[in-house]
Amino acid sequence: MWHLLYPMRTYLVVSGQGEEVNVMAVDWATYVSIDPVLIGVAIHSNHYTHKLIKKYNEFVVSVPTIDMLRDVIIAGRKSGPSKVKQMNITLIPSKKVKTPSIKEAVANLECKVVDEKLYGNYTFFVAEVVDYTQNEEAFNNNRPNTEYKFMAHLSPGTNEFIIFKNEIYKFDIKDL
From the centroid of its chain, how far is CA 11? Predict the structure, then answer.
């Protein structure tokens, strides 16, 4: 039944510090609140990322583009911090958390955990976004520039992704 919720945007969650740093691909990320700015990510309780988020109470959500597809696949299919060496990413210091950000990502949201709850075998971590960086060209006027090929996972359990084309549909609500 999961396939009914797809396609879903794909993100990279960076967790841990020093030699423990791990990067995991996730589809299950969402806004929770605008004031304060809170986002949530669902992480399986057996994943190494889960352990690191519990240990440090922070993480970074990095926004990849299709140009980072190989890295997204490695992050999603392999486990543990050794996979980071196989990826073509550059870890850089974040501004307000000790977990690093990904230089090649078009945005990085620095997050501190404020709540968590176990649902089945996934923990839903709610975190305040304490700072962020973005590629200004990728987010023109606070809107995603679709020329940057933001990616979405086509369906769960596959290595198939799609990009957003620059076809924008508007509906005039004054006629409602």
Answer: 3
CATH label of the domain that carries residue 139: 2.30.110.10
Q: Which residue segment(s) compose the domain that 103 sits in? A: 2-175
Q: What is the 3-state secondary structure (H, E, C) of 73-135?
A: HHHHHCCCHHHHHHCCCCEECCCCCCCCEECCCCEEEEEEEEEEEEECCEEEEEEEEEEEEEC
Mean pLDDT of the residues in the chain: 94
The residues near 17 (Cβ < 8 Å, ≥ 6 apart) are 56, 98, 99, 100
Per-residue model confidence (pLDDT) at position 158: 87
Q: Domain tally for the chain? A: 1
> What would the pLDDT profile of 22-45 be if each residue is shown by its tens digit?
999 999 999 999 999 999 999 999
Q: Give the helix/strand (H/E) hosting 13.
A: strand 11-15
The residue assigned the tokens 């700015």 is: 37
